[in-house]
């Protein structure tokens, strides 16, 4: 049930992402990553303001300031120092408690946003003629499918090697070379059924789906773009190897660090203007 809810949320995130993230394809990677991080940080601080108990946080902050002042004024009084330190510890715990609700509210949107950003920054599309391995995982319930599955002819790529069939793992692999720029489609045939997978080709920024996943919670969270295969499907997943994107701001894995830093800087910069207590 939770997995299906994620599938529905991914469908909504994909629809919004196609519109809201379309400008990413027109900008340099560092610029789009910076703008996305800044906008996300401001949105996070706005959500925090409206989902947290701002008055309680303000009172707790004031108590922390008072106890810090008391520590400075009565540092020679051991009893007062211990009491102030205890109050500081309790106040820190209360701030954490007050942040639980807004953090819970932000968790799902942040996961969806990161899933959409990963489509743009985690890997880059293939170049024309650049080899890639496509791996199809098949259902254990249909062991004969390993020998039956075929890659239908496609104008977007040519087969270099394969199929390589591994019955012990219910896995079949092909090495392909793209021949046409753009979003291509790979068609795999088992009997009278056809299973598809996107293939992203070109030297521009465009969303790139590494894997069409099985209907498993972790897979659908990490690979949101393509509809997952049903639990009883003969094909359980199709994965394409894409090259890493090289950049300190919008490259493979680095984009997450950069996004986090920019969003935090933007959130704290916007805090006084939005009158938010943290």
Automatic annotation (TrEMBL):
The chain crosses the membrane at residues 29-48, 95-121, 255-274. Keywords: Membrane, Transmembrane, Transmembrane helix. This is Uncharacterized protein.
């Amino acid at each position: 049930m939770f997995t299906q809810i994620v599938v529905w949320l991914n469908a909504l995130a994909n629809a919004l992402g196609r519109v809201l993230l379309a400008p990413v394809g027109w900008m340099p990677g560092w610029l789009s990553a910076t703008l996305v991080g800044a906008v996300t940080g401001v949105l996070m601080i706005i959500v925090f303001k409206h989902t947290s108990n701002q008055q309680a946080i303000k009172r707790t902050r004031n108590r922390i300031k008072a106890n810090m002042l008391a520590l400075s004024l009565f540092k020679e009084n051991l009893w007062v120092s211990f009491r102030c330190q205890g109050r500081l510890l309790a106040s820190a715990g209360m701030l954490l408690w007050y942040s639980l609700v807004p953090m819970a509210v932000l968790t799902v949107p942040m996961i969806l946003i990161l899933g959409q950003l990963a489509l743009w920054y985690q890997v880059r599309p293939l170049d024309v003629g650049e080899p890639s391995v496509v791996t199809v995982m098949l259902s254990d319930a249909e062991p004969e499918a390993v020998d039956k599955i075929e890659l239908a002819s496609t104008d977007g790529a040519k087969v270099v090697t394969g199929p390589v069939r591994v019955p012990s793992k219910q896995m079949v692999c092909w090495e392909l070379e793209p021949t046409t720029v753009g979003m291509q489609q790979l068609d795999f045939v088992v009997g009278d059924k056809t299973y598809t997978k996107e293939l992203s080709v070109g030297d521009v920024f465009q969303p790139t789906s590494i894997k069409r996943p099985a209907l498993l919670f972790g897979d659908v969270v990490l690979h949101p773009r393509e509809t997952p295969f049903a639990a009883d499907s003969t094909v359980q997943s199709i994965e394409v190897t894409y090259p890493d994107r090289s950049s300190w701001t919008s490259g493979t894995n680095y984009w997450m660090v950069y996004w986090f830093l920019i969003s935090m800087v933007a959130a704290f910069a916007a805090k006084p203007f939005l009158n938010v207590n943290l």
